[in-house]
Amino acid sequence: MHLPNYVCDRWFECEGEGIALLDPVSGEALVRVGSDGVDCAQALAHARLTGGESLRAASHADRASMLAAIADVLAQNRADYFDISRRNAGATEADAGFDVDGAIFTLKSYARLGKALGQTRGLVEGAVVPLSKEGNFVGRHFLVPQKGVAIFINAFNFPAWGLWEKAAPALLAGMPVLVKPATPTAWLAQRMVADVIAAGILPPGALSIVCGAARDLLTHVREGDVVSFTGSADTARRIRSHPGIVEHAVRVNVEADSVNAAVLGPDALPDSVEFELAVKEIVREMTIKSGQKCTAIRRVFAPMAQARALADAVATRLARVVVGDPAVDGVRMGPLVSRAQQQAAIAGIAELRSECELAFGGGEGFAPVGADAAVSAFVQPTLLFCSDGERAETVHRVEVFGPAATVIPYADERALARMMRRGEGSLVASVYSSDGVFTDRLVSAVGDLHGRLMLVDATVGNAHTGHGNVMPGCLHGGPGRAGGGEELGGLRALGLYLRRHVVQGSPERIASLAAGCADAALMWA
Question: Facing residues of 269 across strands?
Fold first, then answer.
């Protein structure tokens, strides 16, 4: 079966054979995708004109209602999405829920936020600026939707959430969406788009999908478009330097790879609540979605006195994790999404082992439950120990996009901060400590290089939302190596799709323009 593309309000099957999407457990070909024959220039032009005009004509509250209706449609088809996730991505029930339910929750969150903006179509920012002594000439800043297309080039690990966490604020802001999902797991995104289109929720031209290669998509971008990319730093550099992007000064938002950290505080002894919380979260981050999360823990920093005990405790828990076919009862971790990702992860672990010792895993004698290791894409959870993180290089540079993490001892706070900063920018770090002085100093020392910092102590306990769990009301993104982008953060996310300008004129003219706008201060509330 070929999965068709949806552009210009029509379904198009690709020309030629396309690319087979595979079951990472059995290696079976499931469906085929391809973009050959799709006119990307026409697709973007149609979205800008037809979709953009219709969305901008609707109020924020109307667009919010569209998001709520999309969430309802996705919820109705949830069981089908879980099945696709298992077959195409090797997802366990928990993995599928993380992706699919996360998408539905994000859409519902933005539907609620959008309702607060009411029957408005733009935003006004700040106070009136006097520009004449007589008061008859003033200025005011406005935020309006860009008259382009929000183009999403997404990663393979979150085909559901990765689509809708971007689309929700874009549609709410009034921009049409064209998504190019990562090919290996495009089936879920394509099915979701098909269900939304069939439900007739969005106006014509508001939502398009191109599966397979991006081909000449970026050649046809123009001023007013927005490109949002999630994936490798190498691909991000190519997108940012693309002639079409450069020529038209197109906005680009990037979420790239990073070596995120977890930190055990010096007060968190093996019998402490914080120690247990750290162990639990490290294991969860290594195994949920088989470690295939941009936010997953890659480096674990622990005081020298506790580092070995922490590694032993994590290894003990990892030994109880059943890895295999998600269709088998009792399996807690599935495969990576493809053999290519499996080989990349194995190569990365080998590189880390050049300066680290093995604390658990490594693949020797590993046999996944209910699967043939010769054709499947499994990687055993692997914990490494780097005794000299100050001198090490690869542990701060190499991200294994799979179930692997490295414990690194630190001598003192300064050494810890130095090593954390060698990640050169991360999406998230979590700290497990009840020592307020220690956590305050650490946040001050490394906060500028992290998009999010999660501080966990006994008073928080299990109420925290998770090191790797991105909440729609909080910022997602990170500086430096992590891409320098920002997503979500509540209504802040609308800023990517809006253009700020100042209008100068008489107080009456400015007041007339502002009458149909919401206060942009709501974006920061």
Answer: none
Q: Cβ(317)–Cβ(278) under 8 Å? A: no
Spot the catalytic one: 8, 14, 40, 294: 294
Domains of the chain from N-terminus onward: 45-256+485-524 (3.40.605.10), 261-475 (3.40.309.10)
Contact 264, 300 (CB under 8 A): yes
105: pLDDT strictly greater than 90: yes
Catalytic residue among 255, 355, 486, 487: 255
Active site residue 294: yes
Q: Is 387 helix (H, G, I), strand (E, B) or coil?
A: coil
List Cβ neighbours of 89 (8 Å cut-off, separation of 6 or more).
Answer: 24, 95, 156, 159, 185, 188, 334, 337
How confident is the model over 422-479, as pLDDT tens digits? 999 999 999 999 999 999 999 999 999 999 999 999 999 999 999 999 999 999 999 9
CA nearest neighbour of 67 among 33, 37, 99, 110: 110
DSSP for 343-354, please give it: HHHHHHHHHHHT
Give the other-Cβ count within 10 Å of 462's Cβ.
Answer: 10
pLDDT, one tens digit per residue, over 277-317 is 999 999 999 999 999 999 999 999 999 999 999 999 999 99
Q: Would you call 255 a catalytic residue per the annotation?
A: yes
Within 10 angstroms of residue 487's Cβ, the number of other Cβ atoms is: 21
DSSP 3-state assignment of 477? strand
Give the number of other CB atoms < 10 A from CB of residue 20: 12
Mean per-residue pLDDT, 183-206: 98
